[in-house]
Design goal:
The protein has 322 residues and is of the alpha+beta class. The chain contains seven helices and 18 strands.
């Protein structure tokens, strides 16, 4: 366990091994770091490996933003038969068939699975059907028909092709099931198919080059401080008065901002302290009301700085009011 001190806040980029669930990895990080506030930014199936960014401490408030980026995977697709789970952990849905596919037919099939798609999630998935997880219904033997969802496959590149296996690189939007792509590719080719191996090489801005093995997380390698996150967003800086306003959830007026208060606002801003620490995310307000109608401000909708603990004078004053 790490040494006692202020609770760390940032992202630990883990290279998840095959076997544990994403939640198991979160539990390991909680145990090793001794911190309760821990969460991941996008599930990897137990048999999959690779980049799993884990938010720690106050950085858990940023999960919804860090989960938005596209993902890149290296996938092995086995042709010749489909499975109940669309991957190698399921049961075959029939005997294996010859899987020799000519290059032109394969290229056309990959092209049809590239771009914006209406993808039907796997029967064994976490999608909800009538309030229950699809995998729960499937394990009970119930009828499972997940609704198709819109996903985007930006790139589906063939890396190598063998007698019955394909190595693919996939760049896709969040929520895309790569095992469903393997299933659909096999169906398109008329031979069946399933996902045999999967390794995530990138999740949003986080890459394998930053990731550390699960066994090495105590050393805190692969750690990114909050000041290193969401750097694609424009930033403003505040001094002590602005930081105090943020700590109490108050609007940031131009007088609070020492650097970068916008004239033409963007959608969202990082708010940095004088030392570069990430204090909040803020959205603009009042910029479209016109001169003299309202002073524009930045509203802190995600506050990352904690309000100061009350001192003895505050406690005494509060006691006198009760």
């Amino acid at each position: 366990m790490v040494s006692p001190g202020p609770e760390p806040a940032g992202v630990l980029v883990v290279d998840k091994p095959a076997g544990p669930t994403s939640h198991d990895v979160v539990d390991d990080v909680r145990r090793v770091l001794g911190i309760r506030r821990v969460g991941h930014t996008g599930t990897l199936d137990p048999f999959a490996t690779g980049v799993l960014p884990v938010c720690v401490g106050r950085a858990t408030r940023l999960v919804r933003f860090l989960s938005d980026g596209s993902k890149t995977y290296r996938a092995t697709v086995r042709l010749g038969f489909a499975t109940t789970t669309d991957d190698a952990t399921g049961q075959p849905l029939g005997p294996a068939r010859p899987a020799a596919i000519d290059a032109g037919r394969l290229a056309r099939a990959l092209e049809r699975l590239t771009g914006a798609l209406e993808q039907v999630p796997p029967v064994y998935s976490a999608k909800r059907i009538a309030g229950e997880r699809a995998y729960t219904l499937a394990r009970r033997g119930g009828a499972v028909a997940p609704r198709a969802v819109r996903v985007v496959v930006a790139r589906l590149t063939l890396l190598s092709a063998g007698a019955d296996r394909l190595e693919l690189e996939v760049e896709c939007s969040p929520g895309t099931y790569v095992r469903a792509l393997a299933r659909d590719l096999g169906q398109d080719l008329g031979v069946g198919g399933h996902l045999e191996q999967l390794r995530r090489t990138r999740s949003g801005p986080f890459t394998l080059a930053q990731a550390v093995p699960l066994a090495s997380i105590e050393a805190m390698h692969g750690w990114l401080d909050m000041s290193e996150l969401l750097t694609e967003m424009p930033a403003v800086r505040v001094g002590s008065e602005g930081a105090a306003a943020l700590a109490h959830g108050r609007e940031l007026r131009p007088s609070h901002v020492s650097q970068g208060f916008p004239r033409q606002p963007d959608a969202r801003y990082r708010v940095l302290g004088e030392d570069g620490a990430l204090l909040a995310l803020a959205v603009p307000r009042g910029f479209d009301l016109g001169p003299g109608r309202a002073e524009p401000s930045l509203h802190p909708d995600v506050v990352l700085v904690e309000p100061p603990a009350p001192g003895p004078a505050d406690v005494t004053a509060r006691a006198g009011l009760e």
